[in-house]
Design a protein that fits this description.
Two copies of one chain form a homodimer. The first copy, chain A, has 366 residues and is an alpha+beta fold. Helix content of chain A is 33%, strand content 27%. Chain A is built from twelve helices and 18 strands. Chain A has helices spanning 6-19, 28-41, 67-73, 78-91, 110-118, 139-142, 167-180, 194-200, 205-218, 227-235, 335-341, 355-360, and strands at residues 2-4, 44-47, 57-65, 97-100, 122-123, 125-126, 150-153, 159-163, 184-188, 192-193, 202-203, 238-252, 257-265, 273-279, 281-287, 290-294, 298-303, 320-326. Chain A has a seven-stranded antiparallel beta sheet with strand order 16-15-14-13-12-18-17. In chain A, strands 3, 4, 7, 8, 9 and 10 form a six-stranded mixed beta sheet that branches. Chain A has a three-stranded mixed beta sheet with strand order 1-2-5. In chain A, a hairpin with a 5-residue loop joins β7 (150-153) and β8 (159-163). The radius of gyration of chain A is 20 Å and the shape is globular. In chain A, 55% of the residues are buried. Chain A binds chain B through residues 156-165, 169, 172-173, 175-177, 179-181, and chain B through 156-165, 169, 172-173, 175-177, 179-181. β8 of chain A pairs antiparallel with β8 (159-163) of chain B.
Chain lengths: 366, 366
């Protein structure tokens, strides 16, 4: 157990933006919500999954909907209290702790706010190890864990409990209610016991997020290596490309942001170009037509100078970025994992080959 | 207490079609569901509201969505069992009885099926005394009763419990889930105690429905009066017009059927024409431009020969119909009632004047 205070929140938010892999929503607003809650109610206890009793009830917290809407609607303290009461009432027992379901993006921050306001510890664990666009895309689905009973509430005070036959149906019904509630709601889903958490959770992801944040902050202070080398070493990332944004295409189908960004190489990449396709998160990175990485591995764009993460929302013509690949959790690389979040699920006509193997095959070595 | 068997179901269904005032869905499919349940599980006990203890829990049953979808999807017995379990679990106590929330149309029949399958009595009471298109349009809303906790389930096994800040929000959120579930679901809403039921329910409406059904069946056997005079006497209806359908216009906004039907007069009405505007249910009847009836009074079209009700779905060029007005429940004529279901709510630019007063003013007397 250790404490998550203001400093830790800043670091986790920065790392979470990287783990968002372009999506997940910029943690900025979430960070303000978490900072506000911790200032008001005190630091949060971060506990290891091993500290959670097998039969303890864990209530993950997330926002569902468009992070941009969250910025406008805001989020209060009543939402967490309501969700907490709904979960307690439904299960007829006390909640032991909360946790993030999605460590990438804005959802890394809201469980901190909930933990602070409810006086609960937060478990160092999530269900993605990154960000994904749909509700069933969690490691717990691989383990056959149901997303429901799922509790949902909006800032007005409406609340809904779902029980569905599959996690895809949860996505379908909860998405419809989220849209009707104005595009952003607070939810608890995959409520589970400690045993399940230990079995299928992505462990240590909050700490990993914080380390990534620290790494980004520290790159400039390196004396014995280039900032880029230091960033890649500390993050465990594989460099995919370095270039200048030459084109961005964005479309939306009402539910997700789709698009692609094109890069013209700089430095040693000056004779190459790259294209990254995204659906909320970056899905596929091609350099000179050759695929170097696909989901579920993380394809992250960071500012070529500061190494701060660049979300798909912030892509702008002329910006210089480094494209970096991070390995996804091993559970995503199983057959069941790839059925959920493999490239083909997202409409990319390619088999999944692990990032590090694709890198070996060509010029994309670190 | 009396028993509702196969014969009673036939009569109630016929009367419910009339109380549907053009909408509510043809009770035909609902009748098959009710007949099947009673054949399988035995007759249902119909009890008077006075027989219900003040603290007893009453679970109304209805379908939400498009009755035409119900015809295609059907309805099983698991839906009622699931709803029952959800309500029992939520309230932590036994359910005493079920009841219809909408006596007009298909929703008159489904509580009979639920009562038979669950072995519960059904209360002779509803929340409309007719049919209405939106969930908050019940006499219980006037009494400040919340539609929620509302339980919803579909034929696949998905289920949802809503708790909302207003009954309009219940409509909004439950409607979204209904659409996502394929357009028709089974619900229980306005779960209430016996005291509330007695205070705000439309009492005796199932029996009234059955009497109307019997009246329609018996009109031809009259010796001492014309079938029409007998029908009007037994139903308590006010004749608005008699004519041949000369035009039907239908539109839909995805949620409701909107439209109007034009009639060319026959018999003593041969020099007149009439227009009836509807949104699922008939809303306003004009004869030669003068309004003779508006919601919440019931505007019913019946076959000019057989007096069987004609729903807006069944309007066809050339059909001869009698337009009849039936008085709505007195609660709808209060200020609060008219705010919910008065003509202006439905976009009709006219004050509500009771049917019988409008009739006095012109040629539209019985």
């Amino acid at each position: 157990m250790r404490k998550i205070g203001l400093q830790e929140i800043e670091e986790i938010a920065l790392g979470a933006a990287l783990l968002g892999a372009g999506g997940g929503g910029d943690p900025y607003v979430g960070k303000l919500v978490a900072l506000g809650a911790v200032r008001e109610c005190g630091a949060v206890s971060l506990i290891d999954p091993e500290e959670v009793p097998d039969d303890a009830l864990i209530m993950p917290i997330a926002m569902m909907g468009a992070p941009t809407v969250l910025c406008e609607k805001g989020i209060g303290d009543m939402e967490y209290r309501r969700i907490y009461d709904m979960v307690r009432r439904y299960f007829g027992r006390e909640v032991y702790a909360t946790m993030p379901m999605e460590a990438g993006g804005v959802n890394s921050m809201l469980p901190i706010a909930a933990a602070a306001r409810l006086g609960l510890p937060m478990v160092d664990c999530d269900g993605m190890g990154r960000a994904f666009p749909e509700l069933q895309m969690v490691t717990f689905t691989i383990g056959g864990v149901s997303a429901t009973p799922m509790a949902l509430t909006d800032e007005k005070g409406n609340s809904v409990i779902f029980e569905t036959i599959t996690n895809q149906w949860t996505e379908e019904l909860a998405r419809a209610v989220t849209m009707s509630c104005g595009g952003s709601v607070t939810v608890s889903l995959y409520v589970m016991d400690g045993k399940t958490l230990k079995q299928y959770g992505v462990r240590g992801i909050v700490s990993r997020s914080q380390e990534l944040g620290r790494a980004i902050r520290s790159v400039k202070s390196a004396a014995d290596e280039t900032p880029e080398a230091r960033f890649l070493r500390l993050s465990g990332g594989i460099r995919l490309f370095r270039g200048k944004i030459s084109d961005v295409l964005r479309t939306t189908d009402g539910k997700f942001n789709h698009g692609r960004v094109q890069l013209r190489g700089i430095g040693e990449y000056r004779n190459s170009c790259a294209e990254i396709v995204f659906q909320n998160e970056n899905l596929c990175c091609r350099v000179d037509g050759r695929i170097l990485a696909t989901a579920p591995d993380l394809i992250c764009l960071v500012d070529a100078e500061t190494f701060t993460p660049v979300t798909t929302d912030a892509l702008k013509y002329g910006k210089r970025v480094l494209a970096v690949g991070l390995k996804c959790d091993p559970l995503w690389r199983t057959q069941a994992g790839l059925a959920l979040v493999g490239p083909r699920y997202f409409g990319i006509d390619a088999d999944y080959i692990p990032l590090e193997e694709r890198a070996k095959g060509g010029e994309a070595n670190v």
